[in-house]
Amino acid sequence: MKHEQLLAFEAIVTTGTFRGAAERLNKSQSAISHTIRQLEEELELTLFSRDSYRPSLTAEGQVFFREASRVLAQMRELGATAARLRAREEPELRLAVTATLPLGHLLSVLAEIGQEFPATHLRLSTEMMGGPIARLMEGRADLAIATLDGVPVDEVETRRLTEVTIRPVACLEMAARLGPDALPMSVMQSIPQIIVAGTGGPEDNQSRDLLPGGRKWTVSDFAAKKQVILAGQGWGGLPDHLICSDILEGTLVPLVVEGFPPRRSEIFAIRRRDQAPGPVATALWSRLEDGT
Fold it and tell me: Which residue range or ranges hold the HTH lysR-type domain (predicted)?
């Protein structure tokens, strides 16, 4: 029994197809099929039923998968341990952070890391929508801080950090025209909803909290979104940390919109399982905790 056989077996189960496993492991589909046939012959077991379009685990395969998953997790841990033992301080640590996170939650921890590892260049990018996860999974970030929307949870480790609230707002003049009562969807559909483009590509543009059939304006970031809303050109959801002073001053007013309640989003630190962190990334991960 070989490590690559177990990896191929796991990839088929998690992706659902031999083709998906081949794409994940950068191998041909025939190579994956051959690897599994060899494993089944060695074990003298049939792991997959091939009676339908998608392979499904046999009863024996289900038991074997539970144990194989445990072994693979231990092997990844061993690999990560070995890499940490070999590693020196990273020259650069790349963080991709969702713009919905108040950076104050993170800066004190980063200050400690900077003092402890002064030779490491900390590179922090603020990303929109699916941008942090795209950067992480493409290998352009060592750590992402974001929600779990669209995250391949079987490929990452996560650690909950905090919760943020995003609420719909409009400028004082628009809110006064709309009135204090709950606003039906039919009224709001005629007013541009200001949304933010994702930084992870077109597929990562805003897909949640959109009013169906409504007018939309797309901007590049939350700063532009807030400015457009303050100018009375539309309405939209903004995180509390960006608008609390505006609400206190009365320049922005929270709205009660049918189908668009304030949304609470959990924010997590996220790192890939298949990449062994260096000493700086390990130190940062250990200091990120709920309430950071």
Answer: 1-58
Report which residue type is found at 170.
A
pTM above 0.70, yes or no: no
**123, β-bridge pairs:** 94
292 assigned to some structural domain: no
3-class state of residue 292 by DSSP: coil
Angle at 237 between CA 231 and CA 131, to 5 degrees: 110
Number of domains in the chain: 3
Identify the CATH number of the domain in which residue 218 sits.
3.40.190.10
Give the integer Cα–Cα distance in Å for 270 and 133.
8
Longest Cα pair distance anywhere in the chain, in angstroms? Answer: 74
Instruction: List pLDDT tens digits, range 126-162.
Output: 998 788 999 999 999 999 999 998 888 889 999 999 9
State which of 41, 66, 86 marks the end of a domain: 86
Give the tokens for residue 254.
Answer: 């929270």
Element housing 164 (H / E): strand 156-171
How far apart CA 113 and CA 279 sit, in angstroms, is: 11
